[in-house]
What does this fold into?
Amino acid sequence: GQNIDQPTEMTATEGAIVQINCTYQTSGFNGLFWYQQHAGEAPTFLSYNVLDGLEEKGRFSSFLSRSKGYSYLLLKELQMKDSASYLCAVRDGDYKLSFGAGTTVTVRA
Amino acid sequence: IAGITQAPTSQILAAGRRMTLRCTQDMRHNAMYWYRQDLGLGLRLIHYSNTAGTTGKGEVPDGYSVSRANTDDFPLTLASAVPSQTSVYFCASSDSSSGTDTQYFGPGTRLTVL
It folds into this structure.
């Protein structure tokens, strides 16, 4: 099976930066996704990495190292609305997505 | 454009009853998926369909069946519900001809089996 690990919870202050790490061991690799999920809502797509390096999209950036089986999602200039769960998902050799359990980020004033 | 819709929003069901969760997308995506989300376990794939007329089993298919008669609809059926099927169910779709094949999710169905 697939193994995707991310921290359960993180807390940060409004305006600060938070980095959510994700490590994975999968059968094959065809891309890594980050999704945001607010409580009681559907996951929404944030970012996609398939090559090593950093992808920046506004306040959010995602990094991938395929050789290390490692990714992180960086959230800058945190806002209260960023309080949510962040899901790391890896597409394996069969092109199926496997999800981590998610990291709940709480932003405090 | 609605994207992906799911029905019902929530349901309480007696064990042993049959239940069909509906999923419809209007994006003409070829691929569709059903996931369940349980606390501490993340999203797990139940069944998927790469194109109309084909389906496949995911990680946790037992007790569930699906059909894909056309591009837009992908219903999930619980033939005889059991309490362990209490969960939040998400339908998703993707366009596998796109560069990223990103999956987009419906709003979910919260199912409680008593």
